[in-house]
UniProtKB/TrEMBL annotation:
It comes from Mustela putorius furo. Residues 542-606 are annotated as: Disordered. Residues 1-82 form the DUSP domain. This is ubiquitinyl hydrolase 1. One of its GO terms (cellular component) is cytoplasm. The keyword Hydrolase applies.
Amino acid sequence: FLVVRHWYKQWEAYVQGGDKDSGTFPGCINNADLFEDQVNWHLRKGLVEGEDYVLLPAAAWHYLVDWYGLEHGQPPIERKVVELPSVQKVEVYPVELLLARHSDMDTTHTAQFSRTDSVDLVLRTAREQFLVSPQEETRLWIKNAEGSFERLCNTRVTVLDAALKTGQVVIMETRNKDGTWPSAQPQAVNTALEEDENFQGQPGICGLTNLGNTCFMNSALQCLSNVPQLTEYFLKNRYLEELNFCNPLGMKGEIAEAYADLVKQAWSGHHRSIVPHVFKTKVGHFASQFLGYQQHDSQELLSFLLDGLHEDLNRVKKKEYVELCDAAGRPDQEVAQEAWQNHKRRNDSVIVDTFHGLFKSTLVCPDCGNVSVTFDPFCYLSVPLPVSHKRVMEVFFVSMDPRRKPEQHRLVVPKKGKISDLCVALAKHTGMSPERMMVADVFSHRFYKIYQLEESLSSILDRDDIFIYEVSGRSAIGENTREDVVLPIYLRERTPARDYNNSYYGLMLFGHPLLVSVPRDRLSWDALYHILLYRLSRYVTRPSSDDEDDGDEKDMEDKDNIPKPGHVAGGSSQDSGPEQAGPSSGVAGGSRAPVDSSPGPSHWPQRARRKHLFTLQTVNSNGTSDRSTFNEDTHAQPYIAIDWEPEMKKRYYDEVEAEGYVKHDCVGYVLKKAPVRLQECIELFTTVETLEKENPWYCPTCKQHQLATKKLDLWMLPETLIIHLKRFSYTKFSREKLDTLVEFPIR
């Protein structure tokens, strides 16, 4: 307490003098000289201890007032001893703050605070001063010297820790009825907002605007918003006293505050929908994987959010080290309770109260039979879906019968099956023997790959165009037998000359390629021409006799043979290795049939131009370069191109018919997968499994790492159970999303 110095000196002289004469009697305490005025009783500026006043401990002051009294109407000058970083000091001059309202920042009210007072006292004082009703929610801002504003988030710190100085303006903001803060509104309030102010709907039924691929976030938020226990916690402001601003694992309370704002807006009943922009920005700030507007996994976002809310609201301010204890044969109940208590010693929040449960994990050593039981906390269950061992594949079946259109089939095959399984499945639909089928991946008018029967189906993706061709049963591609040979056939169209002397033609692939069986003894160009004309007859019309120049058919015959086939050169466009026409193939330069005007002798009569609709040429598996440009390799599989002049193609090739196909009955049936019960997923989650090689367990008895068996059980369930269905199954080639329907109870 402060006492004016001259009164204190007089009292000292009076008690030391021994003679109690009235001359030195100090009379009642009168501190009038220390005050600036007698209305607000503010201390005069610049008072010095020992010259203007003396400091007395509380007990001494109370004695003096009891003995001598205090001047009527004067307040005692009571001051606090404050603990400063290196010294204790009496705070003679408190901090004077200017309190204002957000709605009227120019009108301020002066209030005095000790440096040891909490910021919460500043807030309570402001609420009293501005007559805020108890149910209204408020928060504080400080105005910095440069005019910017800064939130005073943590109201539990002292005025000193918050670095508040005399003369500083502290602004109190009151939350709007619709859950928003006035300061968070854009300056130019659009008319839609004003219209919304009068809207009164059912609290909680409130849309979230998609900010661009943010359905993953919005769906998780809608789920969380409808957990009564959690939403009530925020609506009743219980979170305010539990915000943890100093947790290194948390987000300084910012995620919890941003989520609280969202909940209050959604449950105000004043919005049809809200734009979660501030929340999205906060999430991106703390978890950079969610920055931008890509698609994300809803579960990943939920997991991040629950963890962030838990640490921001963790009631444990200082986490202690907890030693994990082994079960060592004790009863499960006892070990589980100990594990839960240990968990709560470091993790105690509304999220733990609502969503956390306990697993029981049992590991058994395959060698010594040692059993290890532990109990581990969880926040959600990630349960697997029963994966079907079957796979549905769509293919096109191309018959040898030229009148039949290609048929689309939907085949059910083993997921880990081979190409031969695909043929067997198709055989059931068509009645055709699997031995008479060849399977190819068609991409961009060419054979990307021609499959062998033993190859795995896993390399075929769902988006690949798979064609299965009927071939004569007497053939195997490229094998040296005396029967049939299978020729891959491409269709190409000439484009006009590209250079000045017309010696170069561009050739563009078009249409669907074919695999055609040709008897080995009919491997001549002319025979092949007629075989192909027959094979294409569904969509290629033969010229009528008016179109033909009736020449002698024998002129057309070309006695030389097509290059003899060896093995298939892989058939895929990656390995279009050296391939080449055989010797004396009877084609100009071993490359083109002679309709073009390229240099080189022509073995066919000139009138062939009119008679033949197209010319034939050996090409590589890409269907691009001439085989003659390669080194001699008589064993490579010949690919044949059917080359069309544009006007001939226009006249005789029916493009619409060529692209036509029919759907087999099997395509009409939607293969309904039986729905899975949630219980099945949980049973799958709790089945015994053997640990993988990459993740062995150290057995304390054997003193070595073991591939133990592991079983998880649900020991203790939370109030609200979050179940995540693991819809993605990963293989070496792909990530597959399982679209199995899961039927689940609400309780």
